[in-house]
Design goal:
It is a single chain. The longest helix has 14 residues, at 3-16. With 68 residues, the chain is of the alpha+beta class. 34% of the residues lie in helices and 24% in strands. A hairpin with a 2-residue loop joins β1 and β2 (37-38).
Protein backbone atom coordinates (compact mmCIF):
# COMPACT_ATOMS: atom_id res chain seq x y z
CA UNK A 1 0.00 0.00 0.00
CA UNK A 2 1.35 3.40 -0.94
CA UNK A 3 1.21 6.49 1.29
CA UNK A 4 -1.43 8.02 -0.99
CA UNK A 5 -3.62 4.92 -0.73
CA UNK A 6 -3.34 4.93 3.06
CA UNK A 7 -4.14 8.64 3.25
CA UNK A 8 -7.17 8.19 0.98
CA UNK A 9 -8.52 5.37 3.19
CA UNK A 10 -8.01 7.44 6.35
CA UNK A 11 -9.62 10.56 4.88
CA UNK A 12 -12.59 8.53 3.70
CA UNK A 13 -13.06 6.96 7.14
CA UNK A 14 -12.89 10.34 8.86
CA UNK A 15 -15.52 11.75 6.45
CA UNK A 16 -17.86 8.74 6.39
CA UNK A 17 -17.32 7.57 10.02
CA UNK A 18 -17.94 3.95 9.05
CA UNK A 19 -16.40 2.59 12.25
CA UNK A 20 -18.08 3.44 15.55
CA UNK A 21 -14.70 4.14 17.15
CA UNK A 22 -14.05 6.86 14.56
CA UNK A 23 -17.32 8.57 15.42
CA UNK A 24 -16.47 8.37 19.14
CA UNK A 25 -12.97 9.75 18.56
CA UNK A 26 -14.19 12.66 16.46
CA UNK A 27 -16.83 13.54 19.06
CA UNK A 28 -14.07 14.52 21.52
CA UNK A 29 -10.93 15.12 19.40
CA UNK A 30 -10.05 16.98 16.24
CA UNK A 31 -7.36 15.83 13.83
CA UNK A 32 -5.24 18.55 12.30
CA UNK A 33 -5.91 19.50 8.68
CA UNK A 34 -3.58 21.44 6.38
CA UNK A 35 -4.94 22.77 3.09
CA UNK A 36 -8.09 20.64 3.62
CA UNK A 37 -6.01 17.44 3.83
CA UNK A 38 -5.63 15.47 7.01
CA UNK A 39 -2.16 15.84 8.50
CA UNK A 40 -0.22 12.62 8.94
CA UNK A 41 3.13 12.93 10.68
CA UNK A 42 4.34 9.42 9.97
CA UNK A 43 3.38 6.24 8.19
CA UNK A 44 5.09 3.22 9.73
CA UNK A 45 5.60 -0.03 7.85
CA UNK A 46 8.06 -1.62 10.26
CA UNK A 47 5.58 -4.01 11.88
CA UNK A 48 6.20 -7.75 11.70
CA UNK A 49 2.60 -8.33 10.60
CA UNK A 50 2.84 -6.10 7.51
CA UNK A 51 0.56 -3.55 9.14
CA UNK A 52 0.58 0.05 8.00
CA UNK A 53 0.28 2.45 10.94
CA UNK A 54 -0.41 6.14 10.42
CA UNK A 55 0.16 8.74 13.14
CA UNK A 56 -2.19 11.73 13.06
CA UNK A 57 -1.59 14.69 15.37
CA UNK A 58 -4.55 15.82 17.46
CA UNK A 59 -5.44 19.49 17.85
CA UNK A 60 -4.31 20.89 21.24
CA UNK A 61 -3.11 17.50 22.46
CA UNK A 62 0.32 15.93 22.98
CA UNK A 63 -0.59 12.53 21.58
CA UNK A 64 -1.28 10.99 18.20
CA UNK A 65 -4.32 9.19 16.90
CA UNK A 66 -3.04 6.01 15.31
CA UNK A 67 -4.77 4.29 12.42
CA UNK A 68 -3.90 0.68 11.59
Amino acid sequence: MTDEQAIKIIENEFKQKILTVTEQYLAIHSPIYTDNKIKIDRIDRESKDNLVIAYLPVLNESFYFTVY
